[in-house]
């Protein structure tokens, strides 16, 4: 793979908006895991449903979509997840092999207030998610992101959507490409 920063965060935290902003400010191409794996095609009954029936299959689709989308010498930010809701609604880490296949140069975990995220999801998707479930998922994403960063020997940036200085983050992410 080429130079990719992987940005994860729970549904509704604002990672896509943040990734588009980062991409524009430092000249990256923004990619979405949902678009690469064609989530709308997989979830034809309800694309706003966040439960994933076959996590290994979706991750295989993601890697194939990523290979097809990237160009030599490109610089990318890919937004996705470190954990997903499985078909039973349980928080499940994305397999490490997915991240090994992406081969990111850095990881970014976007975090926020679970109560605010729950209200945003209710407004955006017309879905109720309990704030405690979102808090659990966010904590599991942090644990999994730290493990991935350690195993890949790359840097993990944790960005709280309401508290962290975006200028400092952009400066540090930009340095990741040098």
UniProtKB/TrEMBL annotation:
One of its GO terms (molecular function) is ATP binding. It comes from Mucilaginibacter calamicampi. The lineage of its organism: Bacteria, Pseudomonadati, Bacteroidota, Sphingobacteriia, Sphingobacteriales. It comes from the Bacteria. The keyword ATP-binding applies. This is ATP-binding protein. The keyword Nucleotide-binding applies. Pfam families: AAA_17. Keywords: ATP-binding, Nucleotide-binding.
């Amino acid at each position: 793979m080429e130079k990719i920063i992987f940005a994860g965060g729970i549904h509704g935290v604002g990672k896509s908006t943040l990734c588009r902003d980062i991409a524009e400010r430092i000249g990256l191409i923004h990619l979405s895991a949902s678009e690469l794996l064609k989530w709308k095609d997989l979830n034809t009954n309800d694309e706003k449903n966040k439960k994933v029936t076959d996590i290994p299959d979706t991750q295989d689709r993601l890697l194939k979509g990523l290979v097809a989308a990237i160009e030599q010498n490109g610089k990318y930010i890919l937004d996705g997840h470190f954990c997903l809701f499985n078909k039973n609604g349980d928080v499940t880490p994305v397999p490490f092999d997915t991240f090994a296949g992406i081969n990111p140069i850095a990881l970014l975990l976007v975090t926020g207030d679970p109560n605010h995220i729950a209200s945003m999801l209710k407004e955006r998707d017309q879905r109720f998610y309990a704030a405690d479930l979102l808090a659990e998922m966010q904590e599991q994403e942090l644990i999994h992101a730290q493990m991935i960063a350690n195993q890949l020997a790359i840097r993990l940036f944790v960005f709280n959507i309401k508290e962290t200085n975006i200028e400092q983050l952009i400066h540090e992410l930009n340095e990741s490409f040098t």
